[in-house]
Design a protein that fits this description.
Length: 403
């Protein structure tokens, strides 16, 4: 029995396959993003064949994927790249139908060594139409060979304990498990936006969701030291790093917000403090976005979730931003929906660390939930709004967030 094979990763694209004449742009961007995501995990070659992407160790180098732990690490990283719908660790080999039988038996044995499975099925894709057997014949023959080798197993085509997948292309491949990806479009295919990133649950999820539509991100954080601690700032940096697993390299802009916030606290009615503060934040964010050539702002607001996220409050906040749209991808989600996504992407545990951000330190006890324009005019009567915005823009410190 010949069971010699090479380990590689098979990644499948999803929504990209629906694109028309510009499909190549999305495919090339996906390859670039995969290379970036894997740069710290090894020296890999990535190529495309028949709507599949293949990740292999470069010829002449040690195959790092032979290590099961490393292969799983690479598989997880691949599945975090937007545009990948699923991926698998596969065995690659050459030969004839007998080689397929041998590899399928060896893979089944490996699976049964660690699992007490009782049933299986076989799937087949014949990309190479010159192969003498059609896909149904391959499934039938491979299934029979496995049954002969493992008589304790049964075939269950509807609810099998495991599946043996066979693909015949320029080489041959067998694999079993499939890890689901995050779908979406490759980051870098839909413009650039600035994420207002706090230390909470919502804003990292908002960034993740916009990156899933192909948007490249930068982030802005408003820091009010010593009212917010250095640990709070580090928490936001950690959240930015988590988002960067999916969105790629990011720049984080840290605004020194202390003097601005004290000015607001002193000169703005406390029931309007949250709204005046957010208007200043949005003005600063738009100014930085414009300087950076970014095309929109992104927030984690959800309609009605807190006082500053009522319809009236959102309308008053939007008035400050005149040169670009404000995207709110969570606007129709409740907290449970957002928390589910936060857990899935790995940001939740960091978000709930008990380090307050500037929005919670100076929060009003009884904020106005349905403010009108006249309330806003009165609240800003003693404020130099353009001056505060300019002060925030001038105070910014920008750092690179990388993997």
């Amino acid at each position: 029995m010949n069971t010699s094979h090479e380990i590689c990763i098979l990644a499948r694209m999803g929504e990209i396959a629906l694109k028309g004449l510009n499909r190549g742009k999305f495919e090339h961007q996906l390859i670039d993003n995969l290379k970036f995501r894997l740069k710290n995990l090894g020296d890999f070659s990535i190529y495309q064949s028949q709507s599949r992407f293949w990740i292999e160790s470069k010829p002449g180098t040690e195959n790092l994927l032979d290590d099961e732990f490393r292969a799983e690490e690479v598989l997880t990283a691949v599945c975090q790249v937007f545009g990948v719908v699923s991926a698998s660790v596969v065995w690659k080999f050459s030969g004839d139908i007998q080689a397929i039988y041998d590899q399928s038996i060896a893979l089944t044995q490996k699976i049964l060594d660690t699992h007490r499975y009782k049933s299986f099925k076989v799937n087949s894709k014949r990309g190479d139409k010159s192969f003498p057997l059609a896909s149904p014949e391959i499934c039938s023959n491979v299934g029979s060979v496995i049954l002969d080798a493992f008589p304790e197993l049964t075939v269950d085509v509807n609810h099998p304990d495991f599946t043996i997948n066979v693909e015949i292309r320029e080489s041959m491949y067998v694999y079993s498990d499939k890890k689901m990806g995050h779908r979406g479009l490759p980051v870098g295919t839909a413009g650039k936006g600035l994420l207002l990133l706090s230390g909470g649950i919502d804003s990292p999820v908002a960034g993740y969701m916009m990156a899933s539509r192909g948007m490249r991100l930068e982030a802005i954080y408003f820091h009010s030291y010593p009212y917010t601690s250095e640990r709070a700032e580090q928490k936001v940096k950690d959240l930015a790093k988590i988002v960067s697993r999916y969105a790629g390299q990011m720049t984080l802009h840290i605004v020194n917000f202390t003097d601005i916030q004290l000015d607001l606290y002193k000169n703005s009615p406390h029931d309007m403090l949250t709204i005046t503060m957010r208007r200043i934040m949005f003005g600063i964010a738009e100014g930085i976005a414009e300087k950076r050539g970014l095309q929109c702002l992104i927030t984690g607001e959800s309609l009605g979730q807190v006082a500053s996220q009522t319809m009236e409050a959102i309308q008053l906040t939007n008035e400050v931003v005149t040169k670009m749209p404000v995207f709110r991808p969570l606007i129709g989600l409740d907290k449970e929906d957002t928390t589910t996504i936060a857990r899935r992407i790995g940001s939740f545990e960091t978000s709930i660390l008990p380090y307050e951000d500037c929005c919670t330190v100076f929060v009003a006890k009884h904020p106005k939930t349905h403010p009108h324009k006249k309330h806003m005019v009165a609240a800003e009567e003693n404020l130099d709004v353009p001056g505060l915005i300019a002060k925030g823009i001038d105070s910014v410190e920008s750092i690179s967030i990388d993997l």
